[in-house]
Write a structure and sequence with these properties.
The relative contact order is 0.08. The model is unreliable at 30-40 and 567-621 (pLDDT under 50). The protein has helices spanning 2-14, 17-27, 43-59, 73-92, 94-99, 102-107, 110-119, 127-139, 153-177, 193-220, 222-231, 238-255, 259-266, 271-287, 292-309, 313-320, 329-348, 356-388, 398-408, 416-430, 438-444, 465-472, 519-525, 543-551, 596-609; strands at residues 433-436, 452-458, 475-480, 535-536, 558-559, 614-618. Helix 22 links the parallel strand 2 (452-458) and strand 3. It has 3 domains: 2-67 and 221-323, no CATH class; 73-216, no CATH class; 432-490 and 515-564 and 584-621, no CATH class. 57% of the residues lie in helices and 4% in strands. It is mainly α. It contains 25 helices and 6 strands.
Length: 621
């Protein structure tokens, strides 16, 4: 900061006084919003000034009387068009110029030579004399007479006549255009002429550019032009002008200066006047090791930078202008964020102009549609399952027909286990979903029987590992749903697997760790992928789940509160509130689960849409 302020002070002192006056005059101009138009940087003034001084240095100053009467770009375009025409002409007549020298092309009498060529064979006598006269005339017209036979002279004369006519037209255009040019009098057979005409056109463009630039500068920056004429500011001052511009840009970045803040700080005075007054004092304070206004301003702007980064520029401006008491800043910010959030959410969810009658109608329509879906779902699901069967109920053959006869037998039928052993594939194709307990599944479905696509454990916190192993071995994949905050399965009456005394520490046998409380805990500890189910919807009164949510689920459950916190209709309004709940310790905190029905519905839906084999186990049987 010290370097930036010191540089600005030095640049101001080195800046020519007339230039300082011009920038100060521009900085005094007010925009339509009351903000100084050139507040951010004097570049708005200095850039055209530097460009104009450079223009004067490279091309000289155009007198004011010539700003509107100098050569135009149309003249340069005429030079280019004529250069192209001359070059094209010289290329087209190249075959003619290979036979005819330029002097003969300009003034040679090819008509007389053509008459002599035609008269050679007119009479029997005197052919040699006529041929000699023809050869003499032709030798003055072509480079090599042996290349032109008498019968070709007429065609050559026609080519020369056409070229001569076009050449004369181009010569008239050249003389008209180049009447005041050093190129006047050059003919179109001059091969260097097209290039010279292009150069002349470029020179005219540069002159036109200079005239336009100076005319524009005189029109848009009359005070600067007058300053240059009166005080003699020239090309040698450009270095000082650029140094001040760069020093101001650096100071602006260090102090985080915006047009609004600069205008507010300058008040009614031109901002450059204020800078000229304060920059020396700031530099002295910083050089002395003190903070001063400049350092305190920079620190304040850095503290406000996070607000600017998130788009709260108006809040920053209000703070800087004193519109908010600094003590109330936090409260005002929160109030503004709350009001903005309410406005944004109201717009997103259509709450602006909310009509309760229309919304009640939408809710009733949704309820009716949902009721129709629930009534139709059993029929649609049954129809989908029937369509997915590999057989038709009215045309049973093979293994399915044998299974049907066994099921319809009055006596002597096979047990369920024997049916699964013999007709397992037929049973699962007819009923792809089985709802059994883990024990029943292990009892009635053989281990080498049909393999299910998916097994779903509901209330998995109540299923021990040994109970779950049989079901896991009969499926390709598993979904384990449970709540680790529930009481673990009771071990009352179960046999002990032995004590620590049964193991020999020095033995080489592998030590197998004991199973955890439930299959849910075992899976969580094994690091299997987990999905958190956070919505709770079973409590008609939110207070029923509030304690558990706070004490056991770390407040991460999303429950549906009762309207306005009142008890649901039908509940007793004078019921005694719950005053104490005993909290039982959890043996090994594992994954949190709430609402097993939420898990079973979405996870079963994909399988039922492609019914194959599905087993659902429940600890309740």
């Amino acid at each position: 900061m010290t370097a930036a302020v010191t540089r600005l002070r030095s640049a101001l002192e080195a800046l020519p006084e007339p230039v300082r006056d011009a920038i100060e005059a521009a900085s005094a101009q007010q925009g339509t919003d009351g903000v100084h138009e050139s507040g951010v940087s004097p570049t708005d003034v200095l850039t055209p000034l530097v460009a104009h001084l450079t223009e004067l240095h490279e091309h000289g100053e155009v007198p004011a009387r010539d700003l509107d009467s100098g050569p135009s770009r149309e003249l340069a375009d005429r030079y280019r068009r004529l250069a192209v025409a001359v070059q094209s002409f010289t290329q087209r007549i190249t075959p003619v110029r290979a036979l005819v020298p330029d002097r003969a092309l300009i003034s040679g009498d090819f008509g007389a030579a053509a008459q002599l060529a035609a008269a050679i064979d007119e009479k029997m006598f005197g052919k040699k004399k006529r041929r000699a006269a023809f050869d003499a005339a032709l030798s003055d017209l072509v480079v090599d007479p042996s290349l032109v036979a008498p019968e070709r002279v007429a065609d050559l004369a026609a080519d020369v006549a056409r070229a001569r006519q076009e050449m004369n037209d181009l010569t008239d255009q050249l003389n008209s255009l180049l009447v005041s040019s050093p190129h006047f009098g050059r003919g179109c057979l001059d091969e260097a002429l097209p290039m010279d005409l292009h150069k002349e056109a470029s020179t005219l463009d540069a002159i036109a550019d200079s005239i336009e630039a100076q005319a524009r500068f005189a029109r848009d920056h009359a005070p600067l032009r007058e300053m240059i004429a009166r005080h003699g500011v020239g090309y040698s001052d450009i270095a000082a002008i650029r140094e001040f511009d760069q020093a101001w840009v650096q100071a602006r970045a260090v102090l985080d200066i915006s047009p609004e803040r600069l205008g507010r700080w300058a008040g009614n005075a031109p901002w450059l006047s204020r800078v000229r007054e304060t920059a020396p004092r700031w530099a002295d304070e910083l050089a002395a090791g003190g903070g001063g206004v400049a350092r305190r301003t920079a620190e304040m702007m850095r503290s406000l930078a996070p607000l600017v980064q998130v788009g709260l520029d108006k809040a920053v401006d209000v703070l800087l202008s004193g519109g908010i008491d600094p003590v109330e800043t936090t409260v005002a910010l929160r109030r503004g964020l709350a009001e903005a959030s309410v406005s944004e959410r109201s717009a997103v969810f259509g709450l602006i102009g909310f009509d309760p009658i229309l919304r009640d109608g939408d809710v009733e329509e949704f309820d009716r549609a949902a009721l129709r879906i629930r009534e139709e779902a059993p029929n649609a699901l049954a129809a989908r399952l029937l369509d997915a069967r590999p057989f038709r109920s009215d045309r049973l053959t093979g293994e399915v027909a044998e299974l049907s006869r066994q099921l319809n037998a009055k006596r002597g039928g096979l047990s369920f286990r024997r049916l699964m052993e013999r007709y397992g594939d037929a049973v699962t194709s007819a009923t792809p979903c089985l709802f059994v307990s883990p024990t029943s599944l292990a009892t009635f479905v053989p281990a080498d029987g049909p393999l299910f696509d998916l097994v779903i454990f509901d209330e998995a916190s109540q299923v021990t590992v040994d109970q779950a192993v049989g079901a896991l071995g009969r499926a390709r994949s598993a979904v384990i749903v449970g709540d680790s905050q529930q009481m673990p399965p009771s071990k009352f009456g179960s046999s002990s697997g032995g004590s620590d005394d049964d193991f020999d520490i020095d033995s080489d046998a592998e030590v197998v760790p004991a199973d955890l409380d439930s299959i849910l805990t075992e899976c969580v500890e094994s690091g299997l992928p987990r999905l958190w189910l956070s919505w709770h919807y079973r409590s008609q009164d939110e207070r029923l789940i509030a304690f558990s949510n706070t004490q056991y689920y770390e407040g991460e459950l999303s429950s549906l509160p009762s309207p306005a916190g009142n008890p649901m209709p039908g509940s007793s309004s004078d019921a005694s509130p719950v005053t104490s709940i005993a909290r039982f310790p959890d043996n090994g905190r594992t994954e949190r689960r709430q609402g097993s029905a939420t898990a079973s519905r979405p996870d079963c839906a994909p399988t039922l849409s492609r019914p194959r084999r599905l087993s659902t186990t429940s600890s309740s049987g």
